[in-house]
Amino acid sequence: MTDFVIAPSILAADFARLGEEVTAVLAAGADMIHFDVMDNHYVPNLTVGPMVAKALRNFGITAPIDVHLMVEPVDEMISQFAAVGVDYITFHPEASRHVDRSLQLIKDAGCKAGLVLNPGTEVDSIKTLLPQLDMLLLMSVNPGFGGQKFIPYVVDKVRQARAAIDATGKAIRLQVDGGVTADNIANIAAAGADTFVAGSAIFGKANYALAIAALREQLAQSQLKGC
Ligand code: DX5
Ligand code: ZN
User: Fold this and answer.
1) pLDDT 10s digits, 13-42
2) Is residue 141 lining ligand 1, measured as CB closer than 6 Å?
3) Rg (the chain; Cα; Å)
4) Residue 151: exposed, middle, or buried by beta-carbon count in 10 A (0-12, 13-18, 19+)?
5) From the alpha carbon of 148, which atom of ligand 1 is closest?
């Protein structure tokens, strides 16, 4: 059985009550918190930084925090997020001038490292770096905004990425982010993803526990079909 991870994206949470929102979604069965960081430079939107991750830790959140950096450049933010005690740090390779160095920075700081590929970026483009990763994130929308529609051709990229990860023989998580819902999660899992970001599909619902249960039910179905 694949060990599936569901990571609600804070982008769809009520930022005025972020500590409570994160507490509620964890109590509702989330495994990890997806923390979207935008700088109005790499993407045309602006969210939150390391101080807010620190505030969540101070609030008592001990669950893994998965920082998705949509910023350019990345190295200073890597150092600041690592200092706050987050778990994963992922970034877009085109946002760093020295991608290998940025990955080492994350690892040397004791965090898990990942790269994020935009919908139009080929899986093959990071083949050399793949063995160094703890997680590969495939974007299934163009980064910058929550609530967008899943781009269907990304399912093929999930298959390619699964094959490439399996060929390394390493335990690298394969995460999909953008437009994930109870209607498409089984298909994405069947293609080989094991870690799912969902913003609107969880925080956009009135009952977080029911929303997460609906996603898990679909994941269980995808396993039963023997895909
Ligand atoms: C988009 C972000 C995603 C997004 C997911 O740039 O990286 O994490 O918030 O939100 P939904 O699930 O609503 O597409
Ligand atoms: Zn994200």
Assistant:
1) 999 999 999 999 999 999 999 999 999 999
2) yes
3) 16
4) middle
5) 14
**Domain encompassing residue 141:** 5-224
Task: Tell me if the bond preceding 93 is cis, omega within 30° of 0.
Answer: no
Ligand 1 contact, 33 CB (< 6 A): no
d(CA 190, CA 150): 16
Which ligand is closest to the CA of 146, given by its number?
1
pTM: 0.98
14 flagged as catalytic: no
Q: Which residues surround ligand 2, an ion (CB under 5 A)?
A: 36, 68, 177
- Cα 180 to ligand 1 centre (Å): 9
Q: Which CATH number fits the domain that encloses residue 176? A: 3.20.20.70
Amino acid making up residue 137: L
Q: What per-residue confidence (pLDDT) applies to 126?
A: 98
**Any ligand 1 atom below 6 A from CB of 47:** no
Q: Which tokens is 45 given?
A: 């939107």
Total domain count for the chain?
A: 1
HEC secondary structure over 66-127: EEEEECCCCHHHHHHHHHHCCCEEEECHHHCCCHHHHHHHHHHCCCEEEEEECCCCCHHHHC
Say if strands 173-177 and 65-70 run parallel, antiparallel, or are unpaired. Answer: unpaired
Ligand number nearest to the C-alpha of 11: 1
Whether ligand 1 lies within 6 angstroms of the CB of 131 is answered as no
